[in-house]
Write a structure and sequence with these properties.
Number of domains: 3
Strand content: 15-25%
Distance between the termini: 65 Å
Number of strands: 22
Structural class: alpha/beta
Number of helices: 19
Helix content: 40-55%
């Protein structure tokens, strides 16, 4: 295994372990819980809408506005009405009665109602509770008194009647819920959320009292996807049928069914549910607590509490997210992420129908982390590779060409392209004679120093150095990066090269050496620019008549005299910026006569 592969393997293992541990930690502390809850709610709504499942019947008897308006006494003194309702529901053959109501703490045995018999409030409720509980199991809710750190006590006479009932159930059970951080009730209110540490909740004790088989696991999430939103029967309607002795109606309504009695008033005992479960409230999720008890009871009776998959399955599914490291294609990763999200959602739709669920947010986050880590890793490797290539080939290829190669926009398979360029040729006058009197090492040093200065100037003006021909230099402007006015760049470059030559000569003369003279020729026109050569070695160069003409113009510097000459094509492009002088028409080898101009400098 080479060093690069070993480094990649170590990086992969490190990133995998770090990402996996980080995601598991954040999942453990609940960082992804809000997203998971939102997904769970939406999928339950989807299943209830598209794959509805019937729920065991649970009847809600509601204390509503019409009941309150018809009451001759305050709600806290509705002993007679509650006693009648209990007897009516029992007479109707209910399987169990649950009261999401708080029984009085005190005895009201000194108060009578003028519209009733001589029974006191206390005695009337005792009679009703006793008569009903002898025929039908009755379970009543209890609420927590935070001020005294205890459940609120019930008057001892009522409690003694409730405890006389037969069966293995607690007749006095907690009516508390466990709301999540967003205020919605999703979890079954088991022992972990009860102040006294027991799982004796109202719905669970109703299940036991009705004689249903006890659950092996009374825990999990409330199943809101079974059954349709509740309708309630008004308490006033139940009392009217009871007073009119409509036994058939009572039996048709209650026989064999669990019945919950509670408030359905908007401003009393409201709780947030994940889904709307009150038919009369439309899309509102703030619903009376009695309906939440009803949905819990539905879930218990159907054996349909939702249980999250075990830690092992969650770990295995989450590890799928590690596959996001594979592959370098960003589009492939994006589509892969969409596929994973879609599959995980569809899998949860199926699992929820089987009363199971796995939280997908951790999988999504882990996959995203691995994809981002891979993109970052590939990016760092690409930058390092480009830096290495730039260092290795920067001296062989002009920066514009190297930039195009590294960006992937320029490669050998493209061949050549026709484009407008301005070609510059320069040559040192009399260099052959000069070099014959110099040691070879000094000749090389001189040329390296000279070309280093000139090359920097070409690159400064966005030109491309094509090649060095002995003591000559060929460059072109306008490829591979196009320029608005390539002749203007070439002209500015040529003038700066002459200025640099003056500085080089000043240095040489200070050392007692002969000054150098150069000639520069410019011509603009069409050329074929690209990779030319064999499969074994390519060269990025320009070919065509434009290059030949530029070379001939540079050669005219010996005959015409000035150091910087150009053709009319160049002169027309830079006439507004530079001072030009025509040197007449001159014959060029392989060409008809052309007008040649001297570039003297900026205007």
């Amino acid at each position: 295994m080479n060093l690069a592969r070993a480094r990649n393997l170590i990086a992969f293992v490190f990133l995998v372990m770090t990402s996996l541990c980080a995601v598991l930690y954040f999942q453990q502390i609940g960082a992804f819980r809000p997203l998971d809850r939102f997904i769970l709610d939406q999928l339950q709504a989807f299943n209830r809408s598209h794959y509805p499942k019937p729920a065991p019947p649970v009847v809600i008897v509601g204390l509503d506005e019409s009941f309150l308006n018809a009451m001759p006494v305050p709600l806290s003194l509705s002993h007679f009405e509650l006693a009648d309702a209990l007897q009516a529901i029992s007479a109707g053959g209910a399987r169990v009665i649950g009261m999401d109501l708080v029984l009085p703490e005190k005895r009201f045995d000194q108060i009578v109602r003028s519209d009733r018999d001589s029974d006191t409030f206390h005695k009337a409720l005792l009679k009703g509770l006793l008569k009903a509980s002898r025929q039908t199991p009755v379970v009543t809710g209890k609420v927590w008194d935070a001020e005294h750190n205890r459940f609120r006590p019930v008057q001892v006479d009522y409690l003694s009647i409730l405890k006389q009932q037969r069966g293995h159930f607690s007749p006095y059970a907690s009516a508390l819920f466990c709301a999540d951080s967003d205020g919605r009730v999703r979890a079954f209110p088991g022992a972990d959320c009860q102040p006294d540490g027991t799982d004796s909740g109202l719905a669970l004790e109703m299940l036991h009292a009705a004689g249903f088989k006890p659950l092996a696991r009374p825990d999990g999430l409330i199943n809101y996807q079974i059954g349709q939103p509740f309708r309630y029967i008004p308490m006033g309607e139940v009392l009217r049928h009871y007073q009119d002795n409509h036994l058939a109606w009572l039996r048709n309504t209650f026989e064999g069914k669990p019945v919950l009695i509670g408030s359905v008033l908007d401003n009393l005992d409201g709780h947030r549910a994940p889904l709307p479960i009150a038919s009369w409230l439309g899309d509102r999720t703030l619903v009376p607590g009695v309906l939440v008890h009803g949905q819990i009871l539905r879930s218990l009776m159907a054996g349909a509490l939702i249980h999250p998959l075990g830690a092992l399955w969650s770990f295995v599914l989450m590890c799928v997210g590690l596959l996001a490291w594979c592959g370098r294609s960003g589009w492939l990763k994006a589509w892969g992420f969409v596929l994973v999200v879609g599959v995980s959602l569809m899998l949860n739709v199926v699992l929820l129908q089987k009363n199971m669920w796995f939280a997908p947010a951790g999988l999504w986050v882990l996959g995203t982390c691995m994809a981002v880590a891979r993109v970052a890793w590939d990016g760092m490797n690409d930058l390092a590779e480009k830096k290495r290539l730039r260092a290795a080939f920067g001296g062989y290829v002009s920066p514009p060409v190297l930039d195009e190669i590294l960006s992937g926009r320029l490669h050998a398979s493209q061949g050549g392209v026709h484009c407008e360029v301005c070609v510059l040729f320069s040559d040192i006058r009399g260099f052959t004679t000069l070099s014959e009197a110099m040691p070879a090492a000094e000749v090389v040093a001189l040329l390296n120093h000279y070309f280093a200065r000139m090359t920097r100037i070409v690159h400064k003006h966005q030109g491309t150095v094509d090649k060095f021909i002995g003591d000559g230099l060929m460059a072109f402007f306008g490829a591979p990066n196009s320029l608005p006015n390539a002749p203007a760049n070439a002209t500015a470059c040529a003038l700066e090269m002459l200025q640099a030559l003056s500085e080089i000569n000043a240095e040489r003369e200070s050392r007692g050496q002969f000054p150098l003279k150069i000639g520069i020729g410019l011509h603009a026109g069409a050329a074929l620019v690209g990779h030319i050569g064999s499969p074994d070695r390519y060269e990025y160069t320009a070919i065509g008549d434009t290059i030949n003409v530029a070379s001939r113009v540079e050669g005219l510097c010996k005959d015409v005299g000035p150091s910087l000459l150009c053709t009319a094509r160049v002169a027309d492009s830079v006439a507004s910026e530079y001072d030009l002088s025509s040197r007449g028409h001159w014959p060029l080898k392989g060409h008809s006569d052309m007008e040649i101009f001297e570039i003297k400098g900026p205007k």
